[in-house]
Fold this protein.
Amino acid sequence: NVLGGHENFTYKYNYLTGSRSGIIVDGITELPNFATVLGVSSYEDNYTLESFFARANYDFDKKYILNASIRRDGNSRFAPAVRWANFWSVGGAYNIEREDFFDVKWIDLLKVRASYGVVGNDRLNDANGNSLYYPYQALYNLGRNNNAEPGFTQASIPNPNLTWETANNFDLGVDFSLFKGKLSGSIEYFNRETDGLIFNAPLPLSSGG
């Protein structure tokens, strides 16, 4: 069997807050009924993930099993030049007990299986554990005013080369069942190697881009 598909995920968060003091008419709590503006603030976060994927499985008499998958993901957290990446996996299994030459009555199941795959990660948080949605861009804190003079300060340094973190996973195992299911288990070896690890590294703004 073969499966193909498309997935789109969009996240949008709007934040708005305001406060005033000095009530004018008792009992009315709407903002125009207060004389002094104490402060207002707002921001918006956006995040989009676009994916195309396909998967194929082959099973011959429950004896030889093969599978493969591939997906292509585009992520708004990264700069357009490095936004897209491909991830894939292949795997197979061999049920030896289904072979005609295998005639061991007390073995119900003897399966050898192996798989290898590459998966991506885009999660990046700040020191407080909050998600970062624009790590490749230079960000600025507005409202750093000096009396009537407007001003702002730089909040982060851009990193246009930041891209997907990838994990390469290899799995090799043997599943068995003996004596009509009275004894069963698995022996497995698993190895993961991560490349391009994503983590937050605070830098002084004086270090530049």
